[in-house]
Design goal:
- α4 packs across α5.
- It contains nine helices and 16 strands.
- Strands 11, 12, 13, 14, 15 and 16 form a six-stranded antiparallel beta sheet that branches. A four-stranded antiparallel beta sheet has the order 3-10-5-8.
- The protein is α+β, with helices and mostly antiparallel strands.
- Bound molecules: adenosine-3',5'-cyclic-monophosphate (2 copies).
């Protein structure tokens, strides 16, 4: 379908001078709009947008179908679009000192191509479709008008908080700000499950407000005599710790490449900042030593509670 471009009237009294810019609209069928909304519902970069801005983003996106081995992005190129994945698997390759290495993959969800557009730099990686896939693309101009502008607000909002997160002390200020640029914020109701033990992991969390509790499944009989009517395999969840403002969780599965080692629940209304695995790998390298030291503490904690740390080895 042909995109329409409509010019909004310029109103000098309005603070928001970007309203005078051109809005791009790619018409979509109801079915396409449904699929697009589903693909975008967990995209972190869209999480802090106002409803109206989000709706403009959806209007401007257009569908791109890709074939196996197709290069969607080539490292070193100029940035044209930002992409959200509807389906398909995509390899991420980074070339350094003449050697190309696969540093990860996107598996039927997520987004890529934001860096060149945010920082006006050449593409930092090559993205290749492994199988037939479908993407939604957002053009550079709309990305600038809505996402980059929103990032200026995000930096103001989160700068002071991010400065106080102990884990991030070893990062440069510019690296902390890059984290703010790509993070999303999610709110959870009392008792809501944030992480499920045993699930595959794709993001990392920092508590911005409220409290979360970490629960680990144990065999009901572990560590105590079993009553007659108790099922031998019955499992119960036991609380092992809590995290409050400024503390993080969900790093373990990303560092060890294993399923989630515990479940995490909101205690009261809770807000968390969320960072996806690709940004975690790219930006939090300098903090990994601190995380690893804390992982040793998890073992000690489990040994103290249950007499062993078997759960972390699964
Ligand atoms: P961009 O540089 O615009 O184009 C390539 C994209 O690959 C990049 O934005 C990120 O969205 C994505 N990407 C995923 N992992 C990495 C990585 N380790 N380094 C650089 N880019 C990455
Ligand atoms: P992850 O395994 O990704 O998801 C569950 C999270 O709970 C885990 O990362 C840790 O961040 C957190 N956690 C806190 N205490 C423990 C513990 N003793 N054992 C395992 N995970 C813990």
């Amino acid at each position: 379908m042909v995109p329409t471009v409509c010019a909004e009237p310029y109103n000098p009294d309005e603070d928001d001078d970007d309203d005078s810019e051109l809005k791009i609209v790619h018409p979509k069928t109801d079915q396409q709009r449904c699929r697009l909304q589903e693909a975008c519902k967990d995209i972190l970069l869209f999480k802090t947008l106002e409803k109206e801005q989000f709706s403009e983003v959806l209007d401007a996106m257009f569908e791109v179908l890709v074939k196996p081995n197709e290069h969607i992005i080539d490292q070193g190129d100029d940035g044209d679009n930002f992409y959200v994945i509807e389906r398909g698997v995509y390899d991420i390759q980074v070339e350094k000192d003449g050697v190309s290495r696969c540093v990860g993959k996107y598996d039927n969800k997520g987004s890529f191509g934001e860096l060149a557009l945010m920082y006006n730099t050449p593409r930092a990686a090559t993205i290749i479709a492994v199988q037939p896939g479908a993407l939604w693309a957002l053009d550079r101009e709309t990305f600038h008008r809505l996402i980059v502008k929103n990032n200026a607000k995000k930096r103001k909002m989160y700068e002071a908080f991010i400065e106080c997160v102990p884990l991030l002390k070893s990062l440069e200020l510019s690296e902390r700000m890059k984290m703010v640029d790509v993070l999303g914020a999610k709110t959870f109701k009392d008792g809501e499950q944030i992480i499920k033990q045993g699930d595959a992991a794709d993001c990392f969390y920092i508590v911005e407000s409220g409290v979360v509790k970490i629960m680990i499944k144990r065999k009901a009989k572990a560590g105590r005599p079993r009553s007659e009517d108790e099922d031998e395999d019955e499992e119960v969840e036991v609380e092992v710790s809590r995290c409050v403002r400024g503390q993080y969780f969900g790093e373990l599965a990303l560092v060890t490449n294993k399923p989630r080692a515990a479940s995490v629940y909101a205690v009261g209304g809770t807000k968390c900042l969320v960072i996806d695995v690709q940004a975690f790998e790219r930006l939090l390298g300098p903090c990994k030593e601190i995380m690893k030291r804390n992982i040793a503490l998890y073992h000690e904690q489990l040994v103290a509670l249950f007499g062993s740390s078997e759960d972390l080895k699964r």
